[in-house]
Amino acid sequence: MTVNSENLVFVIHRTHDMLKSCEDKVFGKQGLTTEQYAVLTTIKHLDEPVRITDVARWLTRSTNSISMIVDRMVKAGLLTRERDGDDRRTVRLVITSKAETLLKPATLAGQEFIQKILSNLSYEDRQALLGPLLTVQHEASREKAIEETP
Questions:
Q1: Residue 67 sits in a domain of what CATH number?
Q2: pTM of the complete model
Q3: Which residues of the chain fall short of a pLDDT of 50?
């Protein structure tokens, strides 16, 4: 394949689609969707209190789309919405024990999947891949910020 911008973008998108499809299967076997897993791990990663806007910003999604996912997760018993004790206007997201029970094996399965697909890459190849991907991510993040500036 010839290396040009069009082919690189195609490969990046195709790789993303394939990884997402595989993750859907991996997390689905654990009783979670990929979106639910992403929301749960984001909540665990961020400092409390975690709001829907915090999750949306971290996952680079719209607040509305995350709100709809959270609504379904509340109905499924994976999250609760609680008023913040210090600021009653703030609604924070709290992971339930049901979600914690599903999250542990899902995380393990996700890590095993990543190890499996990276197993054919040497340490040097992984390092060589990481740098350019981080650069692309950084540049895309800058473009997104420019678009969102009023």
A1: 1.10.10.10
A2: 0.84
A3: none
